[in-house]
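Annotated sample (chain length 391).
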Amino acid sequence: MQTPVLRNGVVALLASASLLLSACSSGDGPAAGEEAPSPRSSPASAPASASPSADLPPAEGAVEVVKTLTDGLASPWGIAALPGGDLLVGSRDEATITRIDAESGGKTLLGSVPGVAPAGEGGLLGLAVAPTFGADHLVYAYFTTESDNRIARLQYDEKKPPGQQLGAPDTILRGIPKGSIHNGGRIAFGPDRMLYAGTGETGDTGLAQDKASPAGKILRMTPDGEPVHGNPEGDSLVYSYGHRNVQGLAWDSGKRLWASEFGQNTWDELNLIEPGKNYGWPDVEGKEGASGFVDPVAQWKTSEASPSGIAYAEGSIWMAGLRGERLWRIPLSGKADEPLARPQAFLEGKYGRLRTVLAAGGDKLWLVTSNTDGRGTAKPGDDRILLLKVR
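Output written by the structure step:
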């Protein structure tokens, strides 16, 4: 069930921790401060030239915190919605997955994911629910082990006692390079029902430009971890490259893929992803207009963002900021190179570091804070999941 990114079957590369730490500036933010179509023939997601079909959003938006759904979470990172609306949230450092009732906020421990080795920015990271969950009850997880980052699927059986509801991991992809920083970790199923994964270059910057390595990439694969026919290069999982540390993935109403990414010292980025394109790292950071590289649609100073998860709702991309401690709204214009209006910040400093944002249907979003991960200042009740109403 597992497959390497390389056509010749070789995936390696571990970087030394000391080099990684010296290379990292923003990372998570400084320590200070239906039936699926045949997966082998599924087409790539819509090209970036396609325009969203929905009406354009207003230039200025608004955010209302409707309620705190739940609190007392430990190092939450990945979040995914089950059919029916309840949430699954993973603890990066405890390697557990918990179900959150979407109405009451009640918690049910599913269990632990074996093999997770939390350290630095690694641990239990992204979660995704299979589009075929109603039939197979599969939950996907991206996590760090002692030797690599990998993606596995686990069967969820809610009829078993709490704490014993997760089956053994079935690894579909191993060998993604790991480091103390820049492990990427976001996974999501796209409109094409294929699984996408954002990876980091572990601080070894050259890996981002090496198309033979899965590090510093966006990967696209079948639910079994196999390359998808229609990917840019034959039997490779690599969908786009030249990334420093992809942290958020989302699709707009036109089925265009967006990704948020940590910069180093100057610019954090929101990119519109096109298959096979080079997003510049380490040769380019931010908008430089350099030949052969794709510029971001929007960029921020690293002190204002250090972006993590993103979601699409009400015609805008919503981006959680770690070091920036704010939620960014980027209204989309339908053009590939510019937003409708300047990005707008909300909730600045009110809830601390913001890790993950997830569409909850219509004008609602789930927002997950990140103050118990060792880099934030935890307050009573941290960490929490908030329900937002947006426009």
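Annotation: Residues 1-53 have pLDDT under 50 and may be disordered.
Annotation: Residues 188 and 196 are 5 Å apart (CA to CA).
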